[in-house]
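Example 4.3 (complexes with small molecules)
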Amino acid sequence: MTTTVSAAVPAAQGPAPAPGLDPDPDGSTGRDPGAHRVLTGDRPTGPLHLGHYFGTLRNRVRLQRRGAEMFVVIADYQVITDRDTADRLGEHTENLVLDYLATGLDPERATIFAHSAVPALNQLLLPFLSLVSVAELSRNPTVKDEIAHSDQSAVNGLMFTYPVHQAADILFCKADLVPVGQDQLPHLEVARTVARRFNERYPHADGSAVFPTPRPLLSDTPLLLGTDGGKMSKSRGNAVPLSADEDTTARLIKGARTDADRRITYDPVTRPGVSGLVLLAALCRDRAPEEIAEEIGDGGAAALKRTVTEAVNEHLRPIRARRAALAADRGHLRQVLRDGAERANAVADATLDEVRTVMGSV
Ligand code: ATP
Ligand code: MG
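Answer. The structure with magnesium ion bound is encoded below.
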């Protein structure tokens, strides 16, 4: 069973949290967030959106501020799981770095790297693939969903195996905590299975385990819906990018799917479209969604959309300003990636050496 670490990490006010005030995202052990090694990441398939922001980015930044050791993977090989070629890969990769820095990740404290730049990480895929059955891979609900949304006429092998690749992304740095959205829970389960089976099959000579068993960290918003009522996704044309300008944001929200009932309520089960918008305004204003719905009352979808647009634009204004300032220096973005790759390679080489040793291949 997946042990999901519950709830968001409460916001940190400054770089150093006051002792004793740290949240405990790992309730069962009482560990301080600063004691965790955290791996998170994204595919460079387009600009990060509000689903990323409320689903994982804010938790990443909070964990970083609280002293957790952060690794952030730009999963470039995983782009070609559901498309034939990786379109504008370099540009998307640099833009992810820009989104990270604008939302508060600090490259001095977080190792940000593209996984194609870390060969030893990718080599872990080979032993890991031997630890899962084909039946287990084909049961994965997120893989099935991504296949359903893919433009490809045939499903490629990388699509089936990428949850195992993701296990390599997580385990190469021995991360124990992974802030993710809900769609990633089945993949986390694969990573946990891989870690457990590897440890059972290949313990150290003294009996100790090579890998920790990683846990997902879900935010309060593990699944933000897009303008079409489905999961907000970079590749599904239903996202509000963090980097969009204010007019584009207004246009995207105006196009969101709602219903004919003028009375605005918060009822995610029966009114997913309206409720998704209400939730967005609530998240941006740090208010309860029921309160937002009550205030709009009989104003209908148009008033709701105006409120949401204003709330999103207001909330993102400082992030967008920081992003614009950082965007001027592309050289800096590439340097962040080079530094990150250097650090990630050192860690991956050491892990691969350890793996070879316990497997008896040295
Ligand atoms: P793509 O459509 O290209 O797969 P994506 O929008 O699904 O893009 P990913 O790069 O696959 O983004 O996911 C990166 C991280 O963001 C994952 O942890 C994922 O769970 C989280 N995430 C993505 N979309 C949402 C969402 N709508 N709500 C909450 N979390 C999300
Ligand atoms: Mg995705």
